[in-house]
Amino acid sequence: MGIKRGSTLAAVAAVVALTATACGGGGGSEAGSAKPAGAAAQAAGAGADSAYGSDYGSGAGAGSGYGSAGDTGAGSGPAGQLAVAETDKAGPVITDSAGLTLYRFDKDTAEPPKSNCDGDCAKAWPPVPAGAGAASGIDPKLLGEVARGDGTKQLTVAGWPAYRYAKDTKAGDVNGQGVGGTWFALAPDGKKAAKPAAGGGGGAPASPEPKPEGAQPAQAGLSVATNPKLGEHVVDGNGMTVYRFKPDSAWPMVSKCTGDCLAKWPVVPPVDKAGVKGVTLKNFSVLDRPDGRKQQSIDCWPVYTFAGDKKPGDANGQGVGGQWYAVSPEGKLITAS
Fold first, then answer.
1. Which of 154, 191, 242, 324 would be 320's cystine partner, CB 3.0–4.6 Å?
2. Cβ proximity of 305 and 265 under 8 Å
3. pTM > 0.70
4. Element containing residue 326 per DSSP (H, E)
C-alpha cells in the first residue's frame, strides 16, 4: 500500500513540475473533436515523429556539436522558426526554435552583409544557417542570407550575420552579451539588444543604427483571420496561422511538444492582452515551460505556429499527423476543413 501511495505522489509531482500555471476550465482533451477529411489516411502508416511534420530535420537541433570535442553548448544546425524572448540581461532578444539566443558581431558588416568570423571564431560563435522563419515579433522582411567564405549560407537579420554562442547551453542563456565589446544579442529589429538604461549591464549599442529601407515594424498580438476551408481562425502578429497540439492538456496545462517538435512547431510567445483582437481572453494565460521558455495559451491550451507556413494565409499545418489543428477564436480545435 505504501509503495502505491508513493508512486501516486511521484506522478503528481512530475505533472506539477511540467506546468507553472494551475489552469482549469476544461479537461486534458476535448470530447467530440472530429478529424478532417483525409486526416485518418494521413495518420495511417505515420511513424512516431509524423505529428511533428516530416521535414523538421534529423538530429540538427540545439544539441548538435559545432566541431570541438568538448563543446556542449550552441549547435550549428538550422534555427527553425525564430522567436522573441524577454531576458533580464539584454531585454528582448531573438532566439532559435530551441530558445538559444542569436548574436551579431561588430566586426561584420550589414551593408553589404559580410561575416568576418571564421576559423576558431566560428567554433566559439557557430554561424546560424540560412533558411529560418520569423515568428511573432520579428518582421520577416528583415531576414536574409549571406554566402560565407566556405560557400555555406548564413542567416542575416537586418543585414547582420547571425550566430549562436558556445557557452549558451540552455534556453534563456545570454552569456555572449557584450563579450569583447563586440558581440551582442540580436534585438527583434536586428539592432544590438540592450536592456533599458535603468537596468544597466549587457553592453548597450554604441550608436543608433538605421533600419534597412523598406523594413516595417512587426505586428503584435493575436487576431482573427478567415480562410475558405477553416473559417475564422486565430493568427499571430504576422498573420501566421496559430495551432494546437491534441496531446497537450489544459488541466493541468502541459505542452507535449518538446525537442525536435519545437523546430517545426515554434511556441507562440506571451502576448499583451491589449494587442489581442477578436480572440477570447478567458484563461488567456502563460505557460512556463520546463525548457525555460514562456508560451502563450488560449483558454489554457498552449498554442504554436508552423514552420511549414511561409506566408500569411498559409495553413499547411492543418491536420498534420491527425494531431495539429488551427484554433478558433474561442480556443477550440478546428477539425473540419
1. 324
2. yes
3. no
4. strand 324-326
Hey, what amino acid is at 128? V
How far is it, in rounded angstroms, from Cα 97 to Cα 111?
A: 27
Q: Are 296 and 85 spatial neighbours (Cβ–Cβ below 8 Å)?
A: no
- Inter-residue contact 266 to 259 (CB < 8 Å): no
> From start to end of 158-303, where are the E strands?
160-161, 183-185, 223-227, 231-235, 243-245, 249-250, 253-254, 286-288, 294-298, 301-302
Residue ranges per domain, the chain? 15-45+219-326, 81-199
- Alpha-carbon distance of 256 to 276, in angstroms, equals 25
- How far, in Å, CA of 152 to CA of 77, rounded? 12
Is-contact 271 279, C-beta < 8 A? no
- In tens digits, the chain (337 residues) has pLDDT values of 444 444 444 443 443 334 444 574 333 333 333 333 333 333 333 333 345 453 332 223 333 222 232 334 556 788 888 999 988 889 999 999 889 999 999 999 999 999 999 999 999 999 999 998 887 789 999 999 999 999 999 999 999 999 999 999 999 899 999 999 999 999 999 999 987 654 343 344 444 444 443 333 334 589 999 988 899 999 998 889 999 999 999 989 999 999 889 888 999 999 888 889 999 998 999 999 987 888 999 999 999 999 899 888 899 999 999 999 999 999 999 997 5
CA-to-CA separations, 92 to 26, 89, 186, in angstroms, rounded: 33, 9, 9
With cell 484554433, the residue in question is 327
**Of 108, 147, 142, which is closest to residue 130 (Cα–Cα)?**
147
Other Cβ atoms closer than 10 A to 220: 16
Q: Please state, in angstroms and rounded to a whole number, the distance separating the CA atoms of residues 202 and 195.
A: 7
